[in-house]
Design brief:
This protein is mainly alpha-helical. The protein has helices at 4-7, 12-18, 29-42, 46-58, 65-72, 90-103, 107-155, 161-188; strands spanning 20-28, 81-89. The protein has 2 domains: 16-121; 127-188. It is built from 8 helices and 2 strands; from the N terminus they run ααβαααβααα. It starts with a helix and ends in an 8-residue tail after the last helix.
Length: 196
């Protein structure tokens, strides 16, 4: 039987990889703002966010050759880059440096591309949520329109052609909008089959 203290023992190499180091990256304002936003929504430090991005993209196949080409492309905002010093793990820095060298791109562009790609993935994953939120708002608006219609009919005659024409147009517009949103949700975000 292995004693408990030996089960949790860390190797010197793994401890050295967790060590924090300082490094400077020159990022575009867009990437800097994206990193700040990602940190706020994830409620993690810049070190943790950069470590996660490095692990997720550079140690897996998520960061494809196409992403590398994008990272190597000039964006036209060369003069407006923000220089900041970050604290990251030694392992992440080593991986960033080696990947940048292997692919022949600057590590600043590599980090920037990882940040912007992750932001795009997050935004894409939130689209179904936003569409369902918009659908709920349209349905709420439709219910409010029904309440307004009832109130107006209490005040004026239900045979008022002008009023009925406007209210019918409003009903048609809201129903068309609701149908369009539901169709787009079904097309763009098909329901996953239920597990057996």
């Amino acid at each position: 039987m292995i004693p408990t203290h030996q089960k949790t023992r860390l190797s010197l190499d793994s401890l050295a990889g967790m060590r924090s180091v300082r490094t400077t990256f020159r990022l575009s304002q867009r990437a800097d703002e994206a990193l700040s936003q990602l940190r706020k929504t994830s409620k993690v430090t810049a070190k943790a966010m950069l470590d996660v991005l490095t692990t997720a993209f550079l140690q897996t196949s998520l960061f494809t050759d196409l992403s590398m080409e994008t990272a190597g492309a000039k964006t036209g905002d060369e003069g407006s880059r923000i220089r900041k010093t970050w604290v990251i793990s030694k392992t992440a820095l080593t991986l960033i440096n080696s990947t940048a060298k292997t692919k022949g791109i600057s590590r600043d562009r590599l980090v920037e591309s990882m940040i912007l790609l992750y932001q795009a993935i997050i935004e894409q994953s939130r689209k179904p949520e936003k569409c369902k939120e918009a659908l709920k708002m349209v349905k709420d608006l439709w219910n409010q329109a029904d309440t307004v219609k009832s109130t107006l009919w209490d005040i004026w005659d239900t045979d008022d052609k002008e009023l009925n024409g406007i209210l019918d147009t409003l009903d048609w517009a809201l129903d068309t909008l609701r149908g369009l949103i539901e169709t787009r949700i079904e097309q763009d975000f098909p329901a996953e089959p239920e597990s057996l």
